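User: Design a sequence. Structure:
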């Protein structure tokens, strides 16, 4: 069987490459792509992140959404370090929520979304796909520059200039359906779409058993989002032992 034999789809449906980390945002973005009628080609990365448990979450989410194909790519960004997620720097805890996003935190991984989107672009070109979904957010997020609309627009230009498909007149669209949504709005949209958030993982510094710390930026934003959405977060947190 050819490796790409599972990619055959009806002519009435389009494919989309979806970057699937296993987190709340990427799961919701993928569910939106599915609702819009795309067959999903999922792409997840084991990049040396300390929260590599998110790969198991990505597998669960991909199976739940019925992705057509799921590629897991290994890139060792620990070789460079430069981030609390790929090095020995401690993950900041219990940050004041109002301070999140004011400056670029140590959990920023240098060029991560540029690298991820480059792989997604290659995957898209090889599979004759012109749509890529990424769950970046520019409202309730940690302040990463590669989540901004300006970056996404620049990457679309790069995609046109740097590919054979682009040189032949094709264009690629980087879909960012969550970009202008609050975390609460993202959760409400995911619940409307039937996303099972118990399958996801958000913590930057989980315990060995996968329990979320509850105090890193990602945990705080997630918890605030569920509270503001008036919904119950199905995950367990280290500071809520009786949950």
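Assistant: Done.
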């Amino acid at each position: 069987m050819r490796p790409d034999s599972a990619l055959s789809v009806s002519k009435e449906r389009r494919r989309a490459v979806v970057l699937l980390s296993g987190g709340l945002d990427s799961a919701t973005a993928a569910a939106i792509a599915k609702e819009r009628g795309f067959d999903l080609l999922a792409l997840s990365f084991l990049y040396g992140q300390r929260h590599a448990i998110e790969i198991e979450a990505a597998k669960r989410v991909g199976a739940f959404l019925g992705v057509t194909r799921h590629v897991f790519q290994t890139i060792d960004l620990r070789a460079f370090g430069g981030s609390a997620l790929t090095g020995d720097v401690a993950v900041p805890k219990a940050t004041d929520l109002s301070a999140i996003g004011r400056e670029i935190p140590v959990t920023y991984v240098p060029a991560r979304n540029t690298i991820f989107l480059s792989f997604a672009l290659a995957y898209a070109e090889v599979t004759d796909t012109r749509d890529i979904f990424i769950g970046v957010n520019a409202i309730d997020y940690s302040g990463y520059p590669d989540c901004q609309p300006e970056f996404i627009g620049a990457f679309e230009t790069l995609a046109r200039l740097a590919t054979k498909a682009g040189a032949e007149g094709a264009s690629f669209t980087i879909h960012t359906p969550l970009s202008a949504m609050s975390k609460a709005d993202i959760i409400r949209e995911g619940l409307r779409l039937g996303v099972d958030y118990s399958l996801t993982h958000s913590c930057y510094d989980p315990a060995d058993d996968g329990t979320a710390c509850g105090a890193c930026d990602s945990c705080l934003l997630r918890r605030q989002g569920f509270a503001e959405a008036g919904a119950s977060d199905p995950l367990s947190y280290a500071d809520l032992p009786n949950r």
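The helical segments are 24-35, 54-65, 112-126, 149-161, 164-167, 183-192, 217-229. The first helix runs from residue 24 to 35.
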